Records
---
Amino acid sequence: MIRLAANLSMLFTEHDFLGRFPAAAKAGFRGVEYLFPYAYEPEELRAALDAHNLTQVLFNLPPGDWEAGDRGLTSLPGREQEFKESVSMALRYAEVLGCTRLHAMAGLLPDDADADVRRAHLDTYVRNLQFAAGELAKVGKTLLIEPINGRDMPGFFLQRQAQARDIVTRVGAANLRVQFDAYHCQIVEGDLIRNLETQFPYIGHVQIAGVPERHEPDRGELYYPAILDRLDTLGYRGWVGCEYRPQGDTWAGLGWGHAYGLTP
């Protein structure tokens, strides 16, 4: 059965951040995710979850200096200590929030990256993921990596599904999985259901959005009833994160989710 989680970084932005928790619960969501929790104390977020009977499904490790252009630290040579500190901070939040999945964004390649630079990023990526997976395993949590399309995030180190499978194999950690975002996969590779089937043994979380504008899942070129049905028949029992930007008012665009328990 498909279980939907609201991405509060994108949905219900008509409210301030803490006001998005009751809005998500009222709409019928039982799980929430978001990019980063670090502007709030974890106890404050825990209280918001408890007050509205919500499960914290996912959030990202600190990404570095977002305003300066960082999009993750995991593959960046020379910033290993900063990455280790980001793991420690994320775990502190995850313990309070009861969150079992953490996403480590890969980071960006330099514009002029040659083969040697790419190799250095790969080696750093693998070592950092091995460290993080080890730390998360101590407390029973899953580490995620996500291929992100280079149109939305130019230069992102991890873009393709096969590349993600190779990384998981290289790292060799049982608690390292792939965050399969249908929006990113469709933009980079297409053939979405076949890619989903191939990637399925590696998947630890799924996210959806319409393509190409990243609006509601019923707007654009993808037919999500078929995609979600295939995900269900494959035996997926995790959460599906709704990581899209509403075309207008969030509530007005929730009709697509009636079949999955949303009640706007």
Note: The mean pLDDT is 97.
---
Amino acid sequence: MRSLMPTYVLQVSYALVLIHLVAAKLPSDIKRCVAGDGKCIIENINVIFNKKNQGDESFGLTKLEPFTMDNFSIRQDPASPVAIYLTLNNPVVYGSKNVRATKVKGFGKTPEGRHEILLEAPYISMLSDYVIDGKVLILPIKGEGRSNFTLVEPKMKIVIDATSRTKDGKIFMDVKDLRVECKPKRVALHFENLFNGDKALGENINSFLNENWNGIFIEMKAPLYDAISKQIKVGTAKVFSATPYDEIFEI
């Protein structure tokens, strides 16, 4: 489940890249927005995901569909209802081409304060190699193979708290805090080769996971949000450090 959130987080990071690298050589279908013009900012984000998801080196956009992620692991407290150690290797994420922004707040005449971006999509799916061991609610789980995590109709909010900094007469945004929240309509999970390929046990566990997805998601979302937030903060901070805020927007 963790892999899905980083997917949204990375997608939003690249959306921010587009929004903020507007002062130089933008493609003809990308507008330079007046600061605080939410409609214009939303349109630019949607152009990134829907029309430029294969990347565009002219403004540093990396390929988004599919999106390749770094390996990562998550370890839950043994006392938690979801007490697992999960490693995901070679994760590849699909569905970003259908992501769209629905609302933004902030990005006004000053970078100081709070900025928010709301996103939604029909689905986001992450395919990867996995290794898992532990307990989910009342059942043990153990296996190694291929996995599929899909967020169905997810809605996501990225919250950025920022301050301003002046250097060489230019204003920059410094990202002080970044938080991620996600509310999927449903989460679908599938692990191949559970319990060394025991088909009956594997099917039962996969069915159990999908029937109880909400309880599993509730238990795991806090550490997932923390990990995702740290990852997106690094990428977003690099963008704002490299590009003056007063060249990003007309202020």
Note: The chain has one domain: 4-248.
---
Amino acid sequence: MSNRCNYGPPQDSDSDSSYDGFYFSDEVKRSKPAPYVHPEQKLYNAVLDGDLQTMQEEMRRLDFQVDQPVRGGPTLLMLACHEGHYEIVKWLVKKANVNKQVDSVMPLMMACDSQSKDPYVVEKIVRLLLRHSAAVNVSDKFGMTPFMFACRNGFTDVVRLLIKDVSFDAVDNQGCTPIFHAIEKNNVEVVKLLVEAGVNATIANKKGYTPTQVAECHGYYDLLEILPHPDTTYLVPTHYLGYNTLRDHIPRIFLKSDCPEYFQELNGILQSISVGNMVQYFAIARVSLAEFLIMDEQKLQEVGIEYPIYRQKILKGILDFHLHHWCNSSIARVKDDDMDNFYEVLMIAANHLQHLVVIQAALRFVLRNQIENKMGQPSETNLAILKTNFQGYGDVLNQITRTVKYLGLFSPTQNPLFIDFNEILAERKRKKVRNYFKYTTIILGISVFICLKCKWFS
């Protein structure tokens, strides 16, 4: 079939025909437009292929800035980290910003989510980024951290490299901690490493599933042997976490108490700095509030807080607690209407006892840091304010003392619960003597009766 286009009047028609149509006798040739090629495409391909020389030439030709996104996407360093090209990363990291964010993604995240099949190269890239102060505890818009990417991809050496500086309890947008991502991909070595490091494997995600339940759903029975079972998991006693009885409010009056002194406040401090899961270590060691408020890094390590990131977080929380502004209005006082309410006065006294414990711990904290030259010399103004606060607190304590004495006027001379053990022993002796005479009298009466009966029969 001919490709020639013959459109028009019949060939045998007259030339002066009234035909008004068109006639194309030649083949129509249309030129195809060249496909669009992005100016940075060659640079992009050079990074993907690991061609350092071509990448450098293209950067010079385009006058390309090292932190500029390529083709509107990631930076050169991000692409090199993702593809696992160590030589390019080594050249770029000296010039680029290792903490540059593009759509909430950073180079360290791309390195931990690398497409490279060689875990040794990935570890080298991560070490290189860390040497150039790459941020570790950051997350993207999905809540994923570099550590989560490493756990998901099974980069055991990278996990071992980052594990001392990361938060085990960081969660993504689905409420999953790093161990969830290791379990999802059945990375046995990573899961074993996390469990040995003390990761809390009982925290559930937003759907309510625990790591053990996720492993069961996937049928990863080898992981079930590694994950802790509920019967081996230490559970903090409930009365450690809240005030339940009067002895919790006034532990120094009621000597017998299983809960460490004011441990409930300690739990509150840990919760406020997002390390509430660490409360179990202090519960096992039976650390009181006064002991907690003067802890240093060595004491925290002895308790069981192994990783420096958690120790530093707790130490900062202790410092913030001591730096919290204190004034007289924060102290409870006895109102005139409540002076006859013994329970109300007792609870106010308990509040003051707790404040005294805190003040004593704060003074010990300041004294220790002064001796170790970790704090500057206090100014005269600071000392004057401290003196004024103590005087004001002393006035409040004097008011409490007067109230307690006033209530004492209505109390019996002797405590109703007082037990005189000497009196108890004397009463027991008197009871024995009475019983002796009682039974002796009965025996004598029976004897006389028997004698009279015998005499009567005779």
Note: The radius of gyration is 41 Å.
